[in-house]
Write the structure tokens for this entry.
Amino acid sequence: MSTGFEALGLTRKTLKRIGELGFETPTPIQEQAIPILMAGQDLIAQAQTGTGKTAAFGLPILERLQSGGTSPQALILCPTRELALQVAEAIYSFAGASGVRALPVYGGQPIDRQMRALKSGVPIVVGTPGRILDHLRRKTLKLDRASMVVLDEADEMLAMGFIDDIKLVFDELPEQRQIALFSATIPAPIAKLANRYLRDAQKITIASHPQNVPQIRQSYYEVSHAQKADALCRILDMETPGPTIVFCATKREAEVLGEQLRGRGYQADSLHGDLSQAQRDRVMRSFRTGTVDLLVATDVAARGLDIESVTHVINYDIPWDAESYTHRIGRTGRAGREGDAITLITGRERRQLKVIEKLTGANIRPVRLPTSADIAVRRRDMFKKSILGSLKEGKSDEFLVLVDELTENFEASEVAAAALKLLWAQDKTQIAVQAVDGSDGVRTEPGVVRLFLNGGREDGIRPTDLVGAIANEAKVPGNAIGSIDILDDCSFVEVPADAADRVIKALKGTRIRGLQVRAEPSSPALEARLQTHKDERQGPKPKSDRHKKMKSGFRSKFKSKRGALIS
């Protein structure tokens, strides 16, 4: 069987998007299901959650959409609101620049908002059976053009008592339609449902193989998407790891994150599929020799890496399936060494993490994000250990004469304290710590000022450019420069408060990438602009109030006539 997506009947446009997302080899469920669905046949697929089935049905749906019309062409039924949101976001991600909308429809969200969205016209609806049936009864949803229907996690639907609702929804489907049923198990009621509504269905079964994970420490931090980069820096400062691989979902994200880390003073480089072989060899040589200690990579680029000295693996983006998770964290803890695997998740990704835990049998423990005080204590401990190590080496005889001279006028403890203060101030490992408090994502640490600059991504400006300009022109150490956010037409950078005026004056008239830059203290209006930019990076937003819809849906709960929670 083919080892790539090229043989599955997908168009070049879709293949390009798959490559941008970092996929190279289809999972077994994708390899078998996609050709069947692309051929227009009904399908019964028995596969566990976490095997990549969202792409198995999502990609064929996007491929077979027809232009024109306002009624939904595809309907995806999910047992819970969390899964509906996850599937909708995944399909939006697969759609890429085409901008195809997948509308999540679930109980607990104000129905009038859903009615307005459905009236405006959406090609794909992803919803829970109860709320879908509610819209059908209100005549706010029509399925007369729904040529593709997916029943995801059918056995979960059965367990939650949705089987009768599903039948009522299926009765509203047009005569000419295609149905795909995905389920981890096929109990008798599900088999009966399939026999009633599916026609000449192809059947595939993906065997469930427990994913054994290495005996390494596994943990996760929950943060918002906009705070991920700052959270990563806090974790790195707290963990003080050795050679570390940071996994990203896409080539673009790996490249951008690598630049951000370099801009903040970390020795980092990126590894992804867009690099030439010579560039890949250079990056790996730097990582193996210790010139670079942070390797920011995609799954494809890191496949087959075998570096025994890797102490940490960090999943900057949670992997799509348990197999990918096992592959990633297997890059550490090799040759009998200890290792740590850390995963960053957002609130909506808790379910995926639980699936990975279940399939791997791993205990992935939650960890509180370290505070500035935590990191300060950690740094002092490391500083103390480095001094003790130097004392044990006993190679400081040349400084004893200087100590004798200084102690003629000062106490030995005062001399030692002054020397330590100077050494601490010059320590290049004291990278600025960013504020990540889980609130608005724009606050700064005490003693830090955020500056606004008039140049951005469209001007070719990168984090390293800003660090270099500030360090060279204003004589501010690169490790004292804080968070950097580059928007399309402007940038924000945090600098020590006592150096802010100096930076503004020094940058006046300075050119970066040919642009004459201007710096000024950020204002509330500019902060709002930055926050809007960070909110937009948290996920797909086809409508301006989409984020509010999601938050509202998570907060609200109501019960059906059977007393079960409609999710």
